[in-house]
Each structure stands twice: as structure tokens, then as C-alpha cells.
Specification:
The complex is a heterodimer of chains A (343) and B (1034). Chain A has 11 helices and 3 strands. With 343 residues, chain A is mainly α. The longest helix of chain A has 39 residues. Chain B folds into 4 domains: 286 residues, Roll (Dipeptide-binding Protein, domain 3), CATH 3.10.105; 257 residues, Dipeptide-binding Protein, Domain 1 (Dipeptide-binding Protein, domain 1); 118 residues, Immunoglobulin-like; 113 residues, no CATH class. Chain B is 27% helix and 25% strand. The chains are: A mainly alpha (343), B alpha+beta (1034). The interface between A and B is large, with 62 and 69 residues.
Chain lengths: 343, 1034
């Protein structure tokens, strides 16, 4: 089993490496930034900065027609700026990570600060919201699912299923926009933005309500549908009928047999759901001003702060892949019949 | 029931008939379109009237003519009026008009001579600015302004503004002169309730202005920075004054010896000794520290230390023209490979920044490369970026971390900053808030900035939601916000709303080139860019017609268009923020010169440049003219001639927010049946970059791949005249920022431009306002007052004897002549190379020798070869040369510095000359040369020059390319041709006369290489004195 786990972790890391490499190369193939307007001194400073960052190199001679820009000075000399070959940038990036675990510093978002430090600081904020979201959504979602399954075909089931169907179609960022307008701007019940560190504790607690609720709602609906479907299937199975015919009460049959069996596919999905909402919180973080890695991802992408972007992406990728490994492992833990690595 | 239906059907049918009848009699259709394809679209009498009006306007603009010229102009004008009235059709009337314009132009003498308009009075410069703008309006190179970015802003009633009337370039004086009268209820921190609350859409992550390449960081820094001078609102609250901040005196004193007292390169002023630094960070030892004299130079030493690689330092070093600090570039280059922080060993004495103690006062002296007035001397040095700083503080926090976080974020900008400004950094919570507290040590702490602090909330949502800030304002979280477009109607008249003017004009730029000119500029062998034949842009002929462009301008209802955006309607090239007289707060857009320039755009319109009648008339005029010239053939109502205009925008969202409006204005105006009877159809298309990068749109504009392109114009609002450079069609003058293509601004015949009774080209008149220049027949000559002629170099024992001829105008008097040896050396860390230069003035031998007419001066230098030893980096050895620095005066009036490099020697070092061996002239030889593209004839002279090399990565060149200019004379074809010879790395040995180490070129004493290009023909490249090496160390 350990061999299997190590193999899966190894494969996950290789996959992460390939994903990150491809991402690096593809992103670096984007056209370089240019400053076509402005004074000569400003443009020189801009391009020389790009040279220092390793994105461009300069030449006094025209090497090819494929230059990013050229600057001609009063004394008549011209400097041409060319894009540094992508693979050259790639190997330099890999070398720094492998030899010094140096993922580089931020260039735009927080100049000079290690990209890993920026991510580390923000990761916890995002994690907190997502953990709270899971804490709320799992029991509520499962409970609603069980309730609906037990009341299958009745009014309660119909209402729950209909509401779930409507809410599951509603993206979190749409919901939060609406709720911000309703509860923050129009009625001042909740903070309009994520509270600052200097705000009182009460306000900070209130600040969690909207994002956690908006992130949870989709999960609650998802769990609810999933649990209802699984439980309904189990409850129609023959072994449950057998349990009832053996004299177990309905409650005993459901709690001892139906729920346990229904939970086998549900528990692993909690892990994947966690990763899913981590990614889904990007826009939500931006709208509510939450200083998390989702917001950071969007900003680093837009501002071309590549070092931060790649660390952020590495976090998302690694978490996703490791969650997959954990997911597989959890099957074996929840259901002993499933043996990992067995041939 | 059936009966009812029957009656209803009848009623409906009648209503339909009535509707059709009413539609057919639409009152908005006063003039039916032409029915005859030969009939002009506009009545000939109307056409004559418009052209006569234009001719009268043109004549009215001519000022400063002497009586003789005035008489000639009047005569030409009268003849023109007669001819226009006599014209029988569009073609003859138009010809008469153009002939009259040409005759008037010919009546006015062209500018000839050396001109220096740099020291004209403000009024005179404003007049020139107006003329240049008028030229741009007439030729279309100003583009078409839509609006300027002013708008409506709301303030919390608890804020008392410094003034209720917005002051361009200054604002409402919220912080400096304003106050806060009550607490902000939504603020939970009791200490911050009276702080001014605002927001920013993102956290810049640093306040390090030194290394900032955008204005956002500068604005975060501005609260803690202090400059030598600053602005405060004037007493009448309608403008602002310049006041000393770290300086003591309001005025600066010219420090040039023998200067004229008005303009000077060097300026000196007293600076404060009594100020103290403030910080709320961990480096408390610097809090309340008294300023030291050397602190004033620390920021400059840090900025100009090339090793620090600071953005603003690089910008300062490479800036050109007015405001450039003398010696900055040399210091920057010399320190590139040195230590970071403050370079203790580098010689700062040659940089034009000094501070000294005299009579108990500290005097700061700044020297610029060009002379300027006191106002501009003060303006150039006033930035808070130059706030003094203790070197010890910089050593403690390091330049890298100054005003920012350290690499592991254990220190914040609060820790790494000191303040002499109005506020001190109090908190910096990444991505959440930045807070400033009033600095009690600030110079004006007791009289200005009564607001106790500033709280900036980071509102990321504002990036995607343009109403986010406004919602925060309405929720009482911030003290001010612009009003979003969707809320304008609701809040425009709210008592909290204030009006602002803008600093940027947003406009449409034209490609008014004809196809031939486009090909010259942008074709396969274009002079601006080179475009593959397949990508040739098909120019829309209509855009080169000035009446067509006028029609487009008149058709836009700017007042409505701007009001929708809460912006300010404008037809002006520059925004309201531009000051023609900044010392007296006179905005250029309020001057007579400007009003004259844009009169043609506003006369007869709704005050915003909109007139549907004029638009349609000008459109008709344009189409008639274009038909007459054969550019278009009139279509029919069923099959109209389509004029297609594509507008290049920045991103997809602009299709709904901008394009649809413009499209509707134009198509509604010109596709109406009354305009051309449906024979022409204007089709306006949308384009934007798939990436949404505005640079992509600019790229298209600058490479001629557009009909019309959207752009924004903003620049130095205190020097609008210098900004006019961007209108030039010469990329050197416009620094590559030409956005409107059409008129050849180097040609005085492109449009009548008259100043001081003389006719000029745009480039010539603009340039003489910036630097003394020579003008011949209204054109810039492009020649320097001082140039370097032939140079010969000879290795003579341990010295290189350089004989250099300096060519100059006879009127030019050379002073302070200095020669600098320049070249490239291997960087100290053996990684790459660096540029070095140093004076070799001490090696000038004897007195310079002038020729008889004083147009040449020859200097002889004997430079020890040891001086060359530093230049050890190949392949840049070829760039070893001599720069000439000199002050010179023309007719005793001018005083400036000129820089040139010795062109001749540059070539001489690499490939000195080329000679030909023509032992026999055979048919084969002739055939060979013909095959190479040379015509039959005699080769008489040639010079060779290294023009480039090919290299891979950071390695050495793999191939050199040399070009020789060959003058051919002969019976059939004459001319100057260029032959290109490539020398592969394998042939290096030929270059250096022997085998040498690939990495060491320093030992080469010279070379000769023979390249046989055909039987019997040999071209010999030789360089006798290249790569002089240092004598071996003993």
C-alpha cells in the first residue's frame, strides 16, 4: 500500500511539473510588454528594467526584424530590444528552483518580496474561508440530502430538490453581488468589504458570513443532491429490504446500513469539493476584497507578475493533484473492501 | 362580430396608409438627393461660399507680414477670389482655390538661417503653439478630439474643500487647504475617524517612487515626500502658487558665469537646515533626526548609481532636452558595475548637483544640460522624489527595501520609510489598507494639512466594477468618489457633486495618407516600418480629404457624448490642464491663440463642434472633390459606393461604450438620403486587439495599419509647446509617437504656416522653439552646427595621434572644447560588458588650427595607448571612438552644449578603407558586376564600414557584415551603390592578420582582408590602426 501511495505521490509531482512547465512556456510565449509611448528616458528605463528581469535583451545592432522595440537617441545610436528566448527563461527558472528553492520575487504586486512569502501569507486567508465553508456545507448538505431522501416523492423532497436545483445554478459571485447590495450597501447589516486587520473582532466575524455563505451554498446543494441520490439508491436495494425483514426498524436500517453505504462515495467528494471551491473563490475574493490566493492569482495574471503567478499556480496544481491522491486513499479507508495497489 | 372585424380591418389599413404617407413626408428630409450622376452633391454657389470663407480665414491668420508681402498676399487673394467665382464646376473651383492658396504661400518668404526661438517670451511661444495647433487642425494631424477626462466627483459633506471651484493641475485643495468637520461613523478605529478616507483599486506593494514605473506608486509616496518646492492654493482660490518647501527662498538664482540673468543652466537656492525626519516604523533612531547637509545629495546619488538599477534613475540618466541634469548620464554609466546603495568611490563632482555652506546657509546648485528660466529650473527639481535622506538610513534598510517590504516581509514600508512630507506612514496592511498620520515635523504642519490622517482602503472590486467606489461612498465608507456613468442622471445635480476638468484628451486619430505615401512610409521598404506586401493597408482615399475629416468632426454631438460619460466636451488638441503660462496660471485653452486655432471647428456649431448641417455639406463637398479627382465613382441607390472606415479601439468593451455611438453619429448623418441620394454609403467597422492591450492599437496606428484609431493624449502640462513634437511626421522628432499620418510636416508647402512674416515647415518652427537650428527654405537642414569631419589616427610608438577636424558654421564660436574617449570594457564580474568614457582633453597638442573661412577647426591629440587598454571587450571594440563636447555660441547669442562622436574614426577602426584591384577589364568582370547589380561604368571611390554582425546568445559574433559605398560614373548609369560583404568567423584570422585567441582581440594591431568577388576584381578592406593594445606590463 505504501508503495502505491508513494507511486501516486510521485506521479502527482511529475504531473505537477509537466503542468507547470507547460504553463510557464505558454505564458512566456505571450507577447512581451511594450512601452510605445512616453519620453525617451522613460522608455529606456522601462526596457532596461525588462532586461534586468531577464525578459528582454538589448543589442546595439539590428539582429532580426522581430524586435520588441527600438529606441533611437540624440547621438544617432539605436538600441534594439529583443525577447529573451522562452526556453532560456524556462531553464533559468527551473535551475533556481531546483538548486536554491528560489521561486523568485514579486515584480509588481509586492516588489522584492519572495513570491512564496506572498502566497504563504494569503493562502491562510483563503484556506480559512474554505474550511469554514466545508464545515458548514457538509453537515447541512448531507442533512438536507438525507431529509429529502427520506421524504422522497413528498412535498418536502419536492421543495428541497427544487430549491437546490435553483441555487446550484447560481454562481457564487452572482450571489455575493446580490447579497452585498442587499445586506451591505442597502441595509448595512454586514461589512461592505472584507474587514481590515484593525477592525474590531465582531466586524471580522461578520466579514466571514457573506463569503462563507456564498461559497457554501453551491456545496450544500451539491452534497444534498448527491446524498439524496445515493441514499435513495441504497434504500431501494435488496439488502436494506432484507434488513427490514429481519426486524430492524426503519431508523436502524437507515443509520446502520443505508447511510454507511451511501457515504462511501460522498466522503471522498468532500476533498475534491474543497479544492473546487478554492478555485471558485477567485472572483468572489476580488469582489469582496478578500486578500486570498484567488484574488492574487487574478492580479498576478493581469499584471504579469509571473513569479507570483507560477507559485500560485503551483499551489493550486499541487493541491489539486494531492487531493486526488488523498481521494483515492480515502476510498480504501472508508470502504475496506477497496484495496489500494492490489493487482 | 364579422362586421366588427371588417371595420377594424378597414381602420387598420387606413392607418397603415397614413403611416406610410407620413413617413414619406418626413420633415427631416428637406432636400432630396441628386438624381443625375453628374450633378454635384452640393450646390456650386454653396461650394464657392465655403471655399471663399476658407480662403478668407487663411488670409486672416497671416500675421507679422511686411507691407510688400502683405500687398503680394492681397493680390494673390483677390485673384483667387475672382478665379473661384469664375469657376464653372467643382473641378475648376477647387483648382482656383488650391492655386490661390499656393499663390498666397509663394508670396511669403521662406525662413532661412539659424534660428533660436527657445528664449521667446511666453506670449510669443503661446502664439507659436497656436499656429502649430492650427496647422494640425487644418491638416488633420491633431486627430479629432472627442472629450477630455474631467467629470463629476462627490464629496462627503463632512469635508470642507479648499475651494468649491476646481483648479486645473491642482484640484480642490482637499488635503492641504481643506478640513474635516465631523467623524466618519463607519470607521471603527477611534483614532482614524477624522482621517480622510479614500480608496485605491489595488495595493501597489511599495511606495518606492525611485523604482516606480507608474503613477500609482508615486501617489502613495506623495503623502510622505517633500520637495524643494511645492504648490499651494493662491489667496483668491482660483489658482495655485509655487512655494518653497525644503528650499527657503521662493526664487532661484542663476549661477552661470556671464549668463544673461534670465536663463541659465545652473541655478542655486538656499535649502532648510531646520527640518527633522519622522517615522512611525521600527527604526526609531531616525525619528526626529535633524537633517544633515549631505542628505540633500543622497537621493540623487542613489538614483544615479547605475548598479541600483532604479527605474527613475535610468529615466533621469537617459532623459534628453530640457530638465536633464548635467553629468547624470556619465555618472550612471560609470557606476553600473559598482556597488549598490551609495557608491562611495564614484566621482559625483561632475554631476550637476552640488551643496555647499556659505555664510552659515546651505546652498544647493543644480546644473542642467540646457539653459532654462527660473520657473522651469524650479519645476524640474521640485519632485518629492528628491527628498533628502540620511545615507545611514539607506545603508540600514538598503536601497532594495527602501519604502517597501523586505524579502520575507518582516519589515513593512512603515519601517523602511522616513518622512519630511505632510504625512508619515502609519500602517500598511497588504491588500487591505494603507494609513498615513499627519507629520508634526512637516515644514507647513501648523498652517496647512489640518486633516489628521489619510486612510486608503484597497478596493479590489473597483477593478472590475466601476461602481464599487461609488457604492462605498454612498455607504459612507469613503469621503469622495467619481460618479459612474449609470448614476450621472441621478446624482449630477446633487449638492455633494463637484465638477472637475481633465488632464487627458481622448480622440480619434487619422490615417490620411494616400496609397503611394503609405507605401513610402510603411511598404516593403518603408522608411518608418517595413510591411510585407501581403499586409499592405488599403488606405481609404476619403480620409485624405480635409473636408471629409471636417464632416466627420461636425457630425459628432460631443456635448451629449461627453455628458453621457460625465466628462467635458472638447475639440481641443490639449486638455484644460495645459498651461501656456504656468507662472501666471494661464491655461492654454483659454488663450486667443488657441481660440484662433480651433475656430474652424467651432464656427457655426452648437459650441461643441456639432452641426449636422455643416457635417452634411462638408461631406457633400468632400465627395464632389473626391469624384472630381477620380478617387470615387458615384454609385446608385441600389448599388451605392461604400466608404468603409475601420476604427481601432483598445478592447472589446469599447464597442458598446464608444464605437456604437460614433458609428451611429456618422452613419445617421451621412447615409441619409438627403446627403447623396443613397449613392454613397458610409460603413463604420469596429476593431480591437484580441488581448485588450491598448499598445496593440497604438502599434497598428504607428505602423499605418488603420483608418482611424482611438488614443489618449497627455503629457507635461506645464510645457505644452514641447509636447507638439508628437504631431511631427518625422519619427525622430516625435520619438516614434506619431499617431496621425497625413501631412509631411517637414515640408513648408504641406500647409501654410507663417510666423514672424516667414513661412515654415511644422518641423522647422517646432524645432527652433526647442533648440537652435538651421532652417533652409523653411525646412530643417538636419545638419548640426558642429559636426566632426575626417579623423585620422596613427599609432606612433606608445601614442595614438588623432587628428580631428571639427566642422562648424562660420557663425559658430567654439568654447570649452573637450574630447572624451569612449568604448566598452569587460564587466568587472566578467559577465557582459559596460560602456566607459573619459576625458582626453589633456592630450590635446598645442592650439587648434582653423581654416581660412573659419568653418573647420583641426585638433591634434596624442593619446597614450595605455588609455586604450580599458577597452577590452570584443566585439564592441569597434565602438571605440571619440566624443566631442563643446559649448558654442552663435552670433554671440547662444550658449549650449553639443555632443557628437567621431564618425570617421568609428569606421576607421573597423574597416578603414576599401580599394579595388582592376587589373583587367574583361567581359567576365563586367558581367559579374552586372550580376551583382552594378551598372556598367567606372568605379571611382569607396569607403567601407562595419554595419552589423550576427551572433547567437551571449557569444561572440559569428559573422561580420561590412558595407562599402561605391560611386559609379559612366555613360549610362551613375549613382552611389552599396555592396555588402559578409565575413564569417572562420575568416577572423584574415581580419587580424594572424591567428588569435577567439576571446582576445586586444592584441590585434590592424588587419587587412581581401575578398574576391569576381575574377580579376578584389576588394581590399584594411584598417591600419584598429584595436590598439596596451603595452605589456613590465
Amino acid at each position: 500500500m505504501w508503495k502505491y501511495i508513494l507511486k501516486r505521490i510521485g506521479l502527482a509531482l511529475i504531473t505537477a511539473f509537466i503542468i507547470l512547465s507547460l504553463t510557464f512556456i505558454l505564458i512566456k510565449m505571450l507577447p512581451p510588454q511594450r512601452m510605445l509611448t512616453g519620453k525617451l528616458g522613460t522608455r529606456t528605463a522601462f526596457y532596461e528594467n525588462e532586461v534586468r528581469l531577464g525578459y528582454l535583451y538589448s543589442s546595439a545592432e539590428k539582429l532580426t526584424d522581430d524586435y520588441v522595440d527600438k529606441l533611437t537617441y540624440e547621438d544617432g545610436h539605436t538600441t534594439y530590444y529583443y525577447k529573451t528566448p522562452v526556453l532560456q527563461q524556462y531553464f533559468s527558472w527551473i535551475r533556481n528552483i531546483v538548486t536554491r528553492w528560489d521561486w523568485g520575487s514579486s515584480e509588481v504586486i509586492m516588489p522584492n518580496v519572495d513570491a512564496t512569502v506572498i502566497i504563504g501569507e494569503r493562502l491562510w486567508t483563503s484556506m480559512k474561508i474554505n474550511i469554514f465553508s466545508v464545515i458548514f456545507s457538509v453537515p447541512i448538505g448531507i442533512a438536507l440530502g438525507i431529509w429529502a431522501a427520506l421524504k422522497k416523492g413528498k412535498m418536502t423532497d419536492t421543495i428541497i430538490s427544487t430549491v437546490v436545483m435553483v441555487l446550484i445554478s447560481l454562481p457564487g459571485f452572482v450571489l455575493i453581488t446580490f447579497l452585498m447590495l442587499l445586506l451591505c450597501y442597502n441595509n448595512a447589516v454586514l461589512p461592505t468589504q472584507w474587514p481590515n486587520p484593525t477592525d474590531p473582532t465582531g466586524k471580522k466575524v461578520l466579514g466571514y458570513i457573506l463569503p462563507v455563505f456564498c461559497l457554501s451554498l453551491g456545496s450544500i446543494c451539491g452534497y444534498c443532491r448527491f446524498v439524496r441520490a445515493e441514499l435513495c439508491e441504497v434504500m431501494e436495494s435488496e439488502y436494506l429490504l432484507l434488513a427490514r425483514t429481519k426486524g430492524l426498524t426503519r431508523r436502524q436500517a437507515i443509520t446502520r446500513h443505508a447511510l454507511r453505504n451511501a457515504m462511501v462515495p460522498i466522503f471522498p467528494s468532500i476533498l475534491s469539493e474543497f479544492i473546487g471551491i478554492l478555485g471558485g473563490s477567485m472572483i468572489l475574493e476580488q469582489l469582496y476584497g478578500i486578500p486570498g490566493i484567488g484574488q492574487l492569482f487574478v492580479r498576478s495574471m493581469n499584471s504579469q507578475d509571473y513569479n507570483v503567478l507560477f507559485v500560485d499556480m503551483a499551489i493550486f496544481t499541487t493541491l489539486g493533484l494531492l487531493a486526488g491522491v488523498l481521494l483515492d486513499m480515502s476510498y480504501g479507508i472508508i470502504d475496506p473492501r477497496i484495496r489500494m495497489g492490489a493487482r | 362580430m364579422k362586421k366588427t372585424i371588417k371595420w377594424l380591418s378597414v381602420v387598420i389599413a387606413l392607418l397603415m396608409v397614413l403611416t406610410v404617407a407620413l413617413a414619406a413626408c418626413h420633415p427631416d428630409d428637406p432636400t432630396p438627393g441628386p438624381t443625375d450622376s453628374t450633378e454635384p452633391l452640393i450646390e456650386l454657389s454653396d461650394y464657392r461660399s465655403y471655399l471663399l470663407s476658407e480662403l478668407a480665414s487663411l488670409k486672416g491668420r497671416l500675421e507679422g507680414l511686411d507691407s510688400a508681402t502683405t500687398a503680394k498676399v492681397t493680390s494673390a487673394y483677390n485673384a483667387g477670389v475672382t478665379a473661384i467665382n469664375a469657376g464653372t464646376d467643382t473641378k475648376t473651383v477647387l483648382k482656383a482655390f488650391n492655386d490661390a492658396k499656393a499663390a498666397i504661400a509663394q508670396s511669403i518668404p521662406l525662413a532661412n538661417g539659424i534660428y533660436d526661438y527657445t528664449k521667446l517670451t511666453t506670449e510669443q511661444k503661446t502664439d507659436i503653439l497656436g499656429l502649430l495647433e492650427g496647422y494640425g487642425v487644418n491638416t488633420g494631424i491633431t486627430g479629432m478630439t472627442l472629450y477630455e477626462n474631467g467629470g463629476l466627483v462627490m464629496y462627503n459633506p463632512r469635508i470642507t474643500l479648499g475651494t468649491e471651484n476646481y483648479i486645473p493641475g491642482y484640484g480642490f485643495g482637499v488635503l492641504a487647504e481643506g478640513s474635516i468637520t465631523s467623524d466618519l461613523e463607519t470607521e471603527d478605529n477611534a483614532a482614524w475617524k477624522r482621517y480622510y478616507h479614500t480608496y485605491n483599486s489595488q495595493d501597489p506593494g511599495t511606495a518606492n517612487y525611485w523604482d516606480a514605473n507608474d503613477s500609482e506608486i508615486a501617489s502613495f509616496y506623495s503623502y510622505i515626500g517633500a520637495g524643494f518646492y511645492t504648490n499651494f492654493m493662491n489667496e483668491t482660490k482660483d489658482g495655485y502658487d509655487w512655494v518653497p518647501e525644503l528650499a527657503i527662498d521662493e526664487t532661484m538664482t542663476p549661477a552661470d558665469e556671464g549668463g544673461n540673468g534670465v536663463t541659465s543652466k545652473s541655478w542655486t537656492f538656499r535649502v532648510r537646515k531646520d527640518v527633522k525626519y519622522s517615522t512611525l516604523g521600527k527604526h526609531t533612531e531616525f525619528n526626529d533626526r535633524q537633517i544633515q547637509m549631505e542628505d540633500y545629495l543622497t537621493p540623487f546619488k542613489a538614483l544615479l548609481n547605475g548598479a541600483n538599477g532604479l527605474f527613475r534613475g535610468e529615466e533621469m540618466a537617459n532623459s534628453t532636452g530640457a530638465g536633464t541634469i548635467a553629468g547624470a548620464k556619465a555618472y550612471f554609466e560609470a557606476t553600473k558595475s559598482g556597488s549598490t546603495g551609495i557608491n562611495e568611490t564614484a566621482d559625483f563632482s561632475k554631476v550637476g548637483l552640488k551643496i555647499e555652506e556659505k555664510d552659515g546657509d546651505w546652498w544647493f546648485t543644480v546644473t542642467y544640460t540646457e539653459a532654462c528660466t527660473a520657473f522651469y529650473a524650479r519645476y524640474y527639481i521640485s519632485s518629492g522624489m528628491y527628498m533628502p535622506l540620511p545615507k545611514e538610513f539607506l545603508d540600514t534598510v538598503t536601497v532594495e527595501n527602501y519604502l517597501g517590504f523586505n524579502s520575507n516581509k518582516t519589515e513593512t514600508p512603515v519601517d523602511n520609510s522616513l518622512s519630511l512630507g505632510a504625512y508619515t506612514l502609519e500602517r500598511w496592511d497588504s491588500g487591505e489598507q494603507v494609513v498615513y498620520k499627519k507629520n508634526p515635523n512637516y515644514v507647513y504642519a501648523s498652517t496647512k494639512y489640518s486633516i489628521p490622517g489619510i486612510h486608503i482602503n484597497i478596493l479590489e472590486a473597483a477593478k472590475t466594477d466601476e461602481e464599487a467606489g461609488f457604492k462605498e461612498f454612498l455607504a459612507g465608507k469613503i469621503d469622495s468618489s467619481g460618479i459612474p456613468q449609470t448614476k450621472l442622471t441621478e446624482y449630477a445635480s446633487d449638492p455633494r457633486t463637484k465638477h472637475t476638468t481633465g488632464d487627458t484628451t481622448l480622440k480619434l486619430n487619422f490615417n490620411a495618407l494616400d496609397q503611394d505615401t503609405w507605401n513610402e512610409l510603411f511598404g516593403e521598404n518603408g522608411t518608418v516600418t517595413q510591411t510585407p506586401a501581403a499586409d499592405t493597408w488599403q488606405c481609404e482615399p476619403a480620409l485624405s480629404n480635409s473636408h471629409f475629416r471636417n464632416a466627420l468632426s461636425y457630425a459628432i454631438d460631443r456635448n451629449t457624448f461627453a455628458a453621457i460619460r460625465g466628462a467635458v466636451s472638447s475639440v481641443s488638441y490639449l486638455s484644460s490642464a495645459y498651461m501656456s503660462d504656468p507662472e501666471n496660471n494661464i491655461a492654454y485653452n483659454l488663450t486667443d491663440a488657441h481660440e484662433k486655432a480651433i475656430a474652424g471647428l467651432l464656427d457655426g456649431t452648437d459650441s461643441g463642434g456639432y452641426s449636422l448641417e455643416l457635417a452634411r455639406d462638408y461631406f457633400r463637398m468632400a465627395l464632389d472633390e473626391l469624384e472630381a479627382s477620380g478617387a470615387y465613382t458615384r454609385g446608385t441607390k441600389e448599388n451605392p459606393t461604400v466608404i468603409e472606415l475601420e476604427i481601432a479601439w483598445w478592447n472589446t468593451s469599447m464597442e458598446t461604450t464608444y464605437h456604437q455611438y460614433i458609428k451611429q453619429y456618422w452613419e445617421d448623418a451621412f447615409n441619409h438620403d438627403s446627403v447623396s441620394g443613397g449613392c454613397y454609403k458610409l460603413n463604420v467597422k469596429f476593431w480591437c486587439s484580441p488581448t485588450g492591450d491598448p499598445n496593440d492599437a497604438y502599434d497598428r496606428i504607428q505602423s499605418g495599419q488603420f483608418d482611424i484609431g482611438f488614443g489618449a493624449i497627455e503629457g507635461n502640462t506645464l510645457d505644452p509647446l514641447s509636447f507638439m513634437q508628437v504631431m511631427s511626421s518625422d519619427p525622430i522628432i516625435s520619438t516614434g509617437f506619431t499617431l496621425n499620418w497625413g501631412a509631411d510636416t517637414s515640408d513648408p508647402d504641406s500647409e501654410l504656416l507663417v510666423y514672424n512674416g516667414l513661412r515654415w515647415s511644422f518641423d522647422a518652427l517646432y524645432t527652433v522653439t526647442q533648440t537652435p537650428s538651421q532652417v533652409v527654405n523653411g525646412k530643417l537642414t538636419g545638419e548640426s552646427f558642429v559636426g566632426v569631419g575626417d579623423g585620422s589616427f596613427e599609432l606612433d610608438g606608445d601614442n595614438v595621434t588623432a587628428v580631428l577636424t571639427v566642422e562648424k558654421q562660420a557663425e559658430v564660436k567654439l568654447e570649452d572644447v573637450d574630447f572624451y574617449l569612449f568604448g566598452y570594457k569587460t564587466a568587472d564580474n566578467d559577465d557582459g560588458y559596460e560602456y566607459v568614457e573619459f576625458s582626453v582633453k589633456e592630450f590635446i597638442q598645442g592650439q587648434p588650427v582653423a581654416n581660412a573661412d573659419g568653418t573647420e577647426v583641426t585638433y591634434t591629440l596624442s593619446i597614450p595607448v595605455t588609455q586604450f587598454a580599458v577597452f577590452d571587450f570584443a566585439p564592441y571594440l569597434k565602438n571605440v571612438g571619440i566624443d566631442l563636447y563643446a559649448s558654442f555660441s552663435i552670433e554671440g547669442k547662444l550658449d549650449t552644449t553639443y555632443l557628437s562622436y567621431v564618425d570617421g574614426w568609428n569606421a576607421g577602426l573597423a574597416f578603414g578603407s576599401v580599394s579595388y584591384t582592376t587589373e583587367e577589364t574583361t567581359e567576365d568582370v563586367v558581367a559579374t558586376f552586372k550580376a551583382l547589380g552594378f551598372p556598367e561604368g567606372t568605379l571611382t571611390a569607396a569607403n567601407a564600414q562595419l554595419v552589423g554582425y550576427t551572433k547567437e546568445g551571449d557569444g561572440d559574433p559569428t559573422e561580420f557584415t561590412a558595407e562599402a559605398t561605391v560611386t559609379v560614373s559612366g555613360p549610362d548609369e551613375k549613382g552611389v551603390y552599396t555592396i555588402t560583404v559578409k565575413i564569417a568567423k572562420a575568416d577572423y584570422s584574415k581580419l587580424f592578420g594572424g591567428t588569435i585567441d577567439d576571446d582576445d582581440y586586444s592584441g590585434a594591431q590592424g588587419f587587412t582582408v581581401d575578398i574576391t568577388i569576381a575574377t580579376g576584381w578584389t576588394i581590399t578592406f584594411s584598417a591600419a590602426h584598429a584595436f590598439v593594445s596596451a603595452p605589456a606590463a613590465e
